[in-house]
Amino acid sequence: MILDNFFKNLIYEPVSVLGLLVFYFLLINLPISLGAVFKKKSSSAVRLITILVNLLITLQLLFRWSISGHFPISNLYESLYFLTWGITLGQLLVEREYQAPIIPSIAIPIELLTVAFACFVLPEDLKLSSNLVPALRSSWLVMHVSVVMLSYAALIIGSLLSMSVLFINKNKPLQIRSSSTGIGGFKLSNSYPVNDLVEPIEFSHSEELDTLSYRSILVGFVLLTLGLISGAVWANEAWGTWWSWDPKETWAFISWLFYAAYLHMRISKGWQGRKPALLASTGFLVVLVCYLGVNFLGIGLHSYGWIFGSFVNHPEYLLRF
């Protein structure tokens, strides 16, 4: 009987059912990932469940695309799942570079909270798919919105990794010695010719995470830059103006300046220790305000909101995050 009801709901409401399945799998994955941290050993079960979650969200978004007829990031509900998809993908890519139980243990709670917000907090009106107005039926939809959402995912992962750096081996000095393009580096000494074999440097746990954080933020910054440029071009094409300085655009620019300052200080000034990690950690709040905070003001071209049971819903503007 339970299975019959499940398959019946899956047929008639695939988006909602798959969304709930994602929530429950993440709920199961959370204690397993925390247990792996205490055991100080990566868990293959956590990785497999994360892959399953990513595939379920992919299937959910494909169903939504088929039902609505447009790319499934047209409202807050869809964008929350797309963001979760991006974070799970980023988590798997980071773990591929460096397997450490701390990585899923910091990513999964954010994924779970994001999905829980979409499932249980958003009112039903914000979960429904709506038809797009002519101005937004553009090829820029996929380019602009998906790139910006993926930039949020990469920046969030980078900021979370930086938070972990602040608490891991906090009594030991953190020396940034690895290269900007990958984990690992080589130490050259003036005492030896360049052609002589040089022993590779052994990096500490916190140094590995710091390098991954830097690389994630760098990817997110590049994607955010592309998102801002494509958004300006799309806005000019749709409304005849490149930039309108509404709250969302302003905070997106603030986010860009924030991470540009981080990268500048990291590269040019040669910041050492935990100061760069502290700065990158605060970037999580900047992205949170940019993505969700300013939307609930209910003003501007990008406004959509829900405050204490009342909400503002402007479907013609929901696309541009």
Can you tell me about this structure?
With 321 residues, the chain is an all-alpha fold. The chain folds into two domains: 129 residues, Four Helix Bundle (Hemerythrin (Met), subunit A); 190 residues, no CATH class. It is 64% helix and 2% strand. It is built from nine helices and two strands. A two-stranded antiparallel ribbon has the order 1-2. Helix 4 packs antiparallel against helix 5 and helix 4 crosses helix 6. The radius of gyration is 21 Å and the shape is flat. The chain starts with a helix and ends in a 9-residue tail after the last strand. The C terminus is likely disordered.
Keywords:
single chain; 321 residues; mainly alpha; Four Helix Bundle (Hemerythrin (Met), subunit A); 2 domains; two-stranded antiparallel ribbon; 9 helices; flat
How would you sum up this structure in a few lines?
The chain has 321 residues and is mainly α. Helices cover 64% and strands 2% of the residues.
